[in-house]
Amino acid sequence: MSNKAKIREDAMSLNPIDDALFQKMAEDISFCQEILQVILGDKGLRVLDNVPQFVAKNLQGRSCTLDVKCSLGDGRIVNIEVQKADDDDHQRRVRYNGALLTTNVTDPGDKFKDVPDVIVVFISRFDVFKSGKALYHVDRIVRETGRLADNGFAEIYVNAEVDDGSDVALLMDIFTEDNAYDDARFPATSSCKRRFKTTEEGVSEMCEVIERNRAEAKVEVAIELLKEKLSIEMIARATKLTVDQVKEIGKKNALI
Fold it and tell me: What is the rounded distance in angstroms from the CA atom of residue 218 to the CA atom of residue 236?
């Protein structure tokens, strides 16, 4: 099988739980609005704008590229993240993303009372809390009184592992199952997924995303190996880049 044929096969096997396909689907504001209406339980919710691959900058530490940032009609800001692998402390990931997003949507000089409400929706293939629920809301509670303490930040965890028959669980079927569509309940999600998995135009776009992501991954690996002082020839063999490409990456990043 040629490389192009393999990329095409890989593109057609993706589902919304995969970063590459979610990245493309998140460009569609109607998709973002529909899944937030379901997850937040608000059919009247409106998404005013959506920014896929939103770069949340941190001038003193680690910056992050968030899967999508959405601004809601009531002023709330939502970060939606998708995650397949259970390979990190995802609650801390949510905490960090929420803090970084807050700083990036707050202007210098704003009073704290004017800091926007922020929601992080974390969608995973696995059950983060392993408690048999498809949807979890994490609230701040005052330990001594048992009362809610709302500071404008909300964490919502959704998973595809638990099928409890809810609309959220049905939505997760579309996120994870190759041939799952539900045009009656989730028309925007189903239509968007179908476009990128079954139409020539959509599959071609996904192939471009995969090729670009793989090229970027090779560059990132080359940078790390250059930092480790491996030879240019060894890096070229490891990454399947040319020697000239490795040299160019090294020069661009002041590593050689």
Answer: 10
* pLDDT for position 249: 94
Q: State mean pLDDT over 39-67.
A: 95
**Integer CA distances (angstroms), 123 to 52, 55, 194, 224, in order:** 15, 19, 20, 29
Q: What is the DSSP track for 179-221? A: T---TTT-HHHHHHHHHHHHSHHHHHHHHHHHHHHHHHHHHHH
- Report pLDDT digits (tens) over 127-138: 999 999 999 999
Instruction: Kindly list the domain boundaries of the chain, sorted by start residue.
Output: 3-198, 211-252
Residues in contact with 22: Cβ distance below 8 Å, sequence separation at least 6, in sequence order: 16, 67, 68, 82
- Residue (of 211, 214, 212, 202) closest to 12 by Cα position: 202
Q: Which pTM was predicted?
A: 0.90
What is the rounded distance in angstroms from the CA atom of residue 90 to the CA atom of residue 100? 15
Q: Which of 64, 40, 196 is nearest to 123 (CA)?
A: 40
Give how far the C-alpha of residue 102 lies from the chain's centroid of Cα atoms, to the nearest Å: 17
Query: pLDDT tens for residues 75-115?
Result: 999 999 999 999 999 999 999 999 999 999 999 999 999 99
CA-based radius of gyration for the chain: 21
Decide the pairing of beta strands 135-138 and 118-124.
unpaired
For strands 135-138 and 47-56, give the pairing: unpaired
Partners of 228 in the beta sheet? none
Q: Please report, as a single letter, which amino acid is at residue 34.
A: E
